[in-house]
Each structure stands twice: as C-alpha cells, then as structure tokens.
Write a structure and sequence with these properties.
The complex is a heterodimer of chains A (405) and B (144).
Chain A: E1 60-65, H1 72-83, E2 100-101, E3 105-109, H2 118-124, H3 136-147, E4 152-157, E5 164-170, E6 175-180, H4 187-192, E7 195-201, H5 203-214, H6 222-240, E8 249-255, E9 268-275, E10 285-286, E11 293-295, E12 309-318, E13 321-330, H7 335-344, E14 345-346, H8 355-362, H9 372-396
Parallel strand pairs in A: 1-6, 1-7, 3-6, 7-8
Antiparallel strand pairs in A: 2-3, 4-5, 8-9, 9-13, 10-14, 11-12, 12-13
Chain B: H1 2-10, H2 15-25, E1 31-32, E2 59-60, H3 69-87, H4 93-122, H5 125-132
Parallel strand pairs in B: 1-2
Helix pairs in contact in B: 3-4
Classes of the chains: A alpha/beta (405), B mainly alpha (144).
Chain lengths: 405, 144
Amino acid sequence: MAICSAHTTTSLRSPCTTVSNAGLRQKQVIFVTSNRRSGGGRRHGGARSFQVSCSVDKPVVIGLAADSGCGKSTFMRRLTSVFGGAAEPPKGGNPDSNTLISDTTTVICLDDYHSLDRNGRKEKGVTALDPRANNFDLMYEQVKAIKEGQAVEKPIYNHVTGLLDPPELIAPPKIFVIEGLHPMFDERVRDLLDFSIYLDISDEVKFAWKIQRDMAERGHSLESIKASIEARKPDFDAFIDPQKQYADAVIEVLPTQLIPDDNEGKVLRVKLIMKEGVKNFNPVYLFDEGSTISWVPCGRKLTCSYPGIKFSYGPDTYFGNEVSVLEMDGQFDRLDELIYVESHLSNLSTKFYGEVTQQMLKHADFPGSNNGTGLFQTIIGLKIRDLYEQIVAERAGVPAEAAKV
Amino acid sequence: MAASTVASLSVPVTTTTFAAAAAAGGADVLIVVPRRAGAGRVWFPAAARRGGGSGRLVAVRSSGPATPPEISDKVSESIKQAEETCADDQKGDAECAAAWDEVEELSATASHARDSLKETNANDPLEKYCKDNPDSEECRIYDN
C-alpha cells in the first residue's frame, strides 16, 4: 500500500519527497487528498511546513552477492545513478559507516552483521565467508523490519579497526539494497528479496583484478595475492558460490575468447544470465526473443578496433532453471559502437532511446565502462527501476506502465 | 525528450573518454608503478607469471592517492602474520585461511580508502579547474 494513494505515481522521480522533518517517522500515515490534476503548485498543501512522504511504506528489497573486491561498489554506484541522484554515506554519522544513501535508495553492507569481529575470527580460525562469523538472525529480523516499513538500529562493522561500532539508524527507503557476501545464504533473508543479483567473477579475472588493486600496496606481492585467493577459496566455494543458483540475474565475468591464450585480463567476456518467469522482470533479448543468436556487430556498418566485439544470445538452463543468456565479448572503443549495440537490444526498460549509452558515458571513469560488465550492470539497474515501478503501481492498484523501449 | 538526449549524449563523448577509462579502470594492469617507492617499476618475477603465455607487460597508472598510512601499515602487518601463521605447523588450515581473509579484508578497505580520497580530490576546486585546463601553470605536474 502506498502512503498517499492519491498520487498513484509510478515514477521514481515522483513529486513526493522523502520526509526530511526530524519529528516525522515514515511509519506515520499521512493522508494526502490533493490531486495532481487539480493543478496549482501547492502539492504539499496545508499550513504545516513539513513535507509529505510519498514513498511506499514497504521498500522493494534487492540483494547483491559477490566476493570481496569483485566490483560490488561500482555496481552500486551505477545502480543508484540509474535511479537518479548520487549515493552518499549518512550525513553526520560514523565516518566509517558502510551505508550509502540516495534520494530513493539505501545500500547496506552485510559485513555489518558480522557476529565475530576481526579478533574473534582470528581466535576461532574462521573467515568472514563462514556463516559462523555472521549473525543471520539479526540480519533477517532487520531486513524484515525495513521491508515492513520500520526503521532499525543496524550495527556497523568498522573495516579499518575490525571492530563493531555503535549502531546507526536506518530508515526504510524506497529501494533497499543489501550487498555483501551472503544476501542469499539464509533462506529467510532470501525470501525477503524482490530481486537478487550475483556477480560471478572467474578465478582468472579475480586474480587480474586483485593484482591491479593490490600490487602497489606495500607488503603485497604476486605471491601474497595468489595465497590470499587460494586460502579463501574453500570457504568461498562452500558458502558464497552456491548462492548463485538463487539469483534472478547472474553477471559472469570471464577471460576473452577473442584473443587466443589471453591472460592479461584486459579484454573480458561477460555473460548476463537472466532467470525466466521472475515476476516483474522481463529478460533483455537480442533480435528475436528465445532464438539462439551469434552477432558480430563489427563489419561494413560499424568499424571496430582489435579484437572486436562479439555478442551471443539464447535460451539455456542454469541450475535447473530456465534462463536467457546474453553475452558480450570484447570492448567498446567508440561511442557509435555502444549506440549501435544498444539499438539492437530489446526489452531494455529504458525511458528514452540512448539511455543505456548515456548512463555508460556518465560514468566512463568507472571500471568496466567500456565492456560487458558496465553494460550489463547498467541494464540490471534499468531492470530494477522497472521492477520497482511495477511493484509500486501494483500496490497502488493501477496497471504498470509498459516499458517504452 | 529526444533532443535533450542527443544533446547530453554528445557532450562528454570523445574517443579519448573511453581510452582513458580503459586505462584508469579496466583490469588491464600487470605492472604497476609503486605509489610510495618513487620512480622504479616493479617487474613481475618471471616464475610468477601465469600460464607461460604471451605475458605481455604493460606499465600503466603512476598517480592516484596513496593508501592512508594507518590502513597501509595494517595491510603489510597482516600479510606478514598470514605468512607466519601458514608456515607454523602448530596452526591448521583454518587459521591460515582466516589470516589470509584478514589480508583480503584490509586490502579491500585500503582500496576503498583510496577511492574515497580520489573522490574527495575530484571535488577539489583546483582539481576541477585542472581537469579542464591541464596546461595552465598551476596545473602542471613535474616528474622528479
């Protein structure tokens, strides 16, 4: 149920603003009787000076799973950008807070639910990947409370000190994202998710990324980077990797096949695996929905530089589920390549022609903006916006507006 | 709507945008110039190169904020501890894994700290000005 059903707006950029008045909690129900069509600028009419919250009282909850250092934060920045507005840490709070807040979205990091701090894990010989280092009861209770529209006092795991800091207040947003190692591990938490994503980075690429991230760090060497990945792998395989079977969308990042024996990790082959039959989620397709297609856009119309770009699309099964898989190998070097590709994809849930390209260019400085990781993260962002709008429309009792493109 | 789209698309786009993004952000670095140690480049030990394949070496990225010392010290300390823990016969695989997991956690924290410094720097008025006027006197960067 939306708080102010009079608006029944399905737009994320709705005229309604989030409550900013300190004394007003989201749980309070305020009936707004003004009607948009009655015109006039007095949308927030009445003598009182507070602004009326028009957000739905039950946030849409999204789960994002990936290993540490595998691009969750870049994905989150792309996602919040699609929703409009930049995501920032809570103002005036703990400077080491892991939370990001934008107008529409709050992203929390599930490390905050560590039950063992850094010392505790060391004493017990338990990694952060191990469920024993995490408090799933509290995670479940708090995600459930947020989903029901209640604010929670969430703990803060301080990544610098390795200690649990005093909690921070999290108010229910429109879109609530839980990102971390275990968003789909606990069945109770999993069932609260309206949509879930798993970032699946192949060992080769993980190694290349971590070299790039850590080599300049004092004390690190190729051996230490390798040792860290290898030592964590058993727990990763046991507790993190199996979550991908539950994901509605999986972004798989692999080495390219365009360059034989490539081990540079520079050019990537990225797969977007989309589960069929997920409510409010219609997979993207290339040319003809449900067919199997291999497409090299580079040719007479489009000139690409080495090693070129190759797309594939088709139906498949993934952990026994029916899925559609879209794959991109190679990278974009010029704008016209990106636009050309966008114009050949369907079901993108864009609001105008060129929106994918626009989003990619807006964040050209983010990692992966010239390859499939950036493209598919942007597409998933648009899909989540669409899903959100459909859910809101559904709650408000009006049929969802179909995607325009 | 269409007009504004086209306008906004055409503004920030140049061929170099993508090239720069690829250099700054892609997973394209095998050889990194150390931020602290000054001029020298770090070359991979040949034995550590993977697969024995082409092994083409690329040198990129020399600038960017350094990790705050408090975190940097923790990273190097944790690596030392992990190496010791795993070499110790008295300690098991679990302790070894937990020790390397701490290294990963601190390395990720260091990376996030550098990213937020980069963001802070990007909001600096001088940095903003220099982005548009890289050749002006106050924006020149000299190698030592």
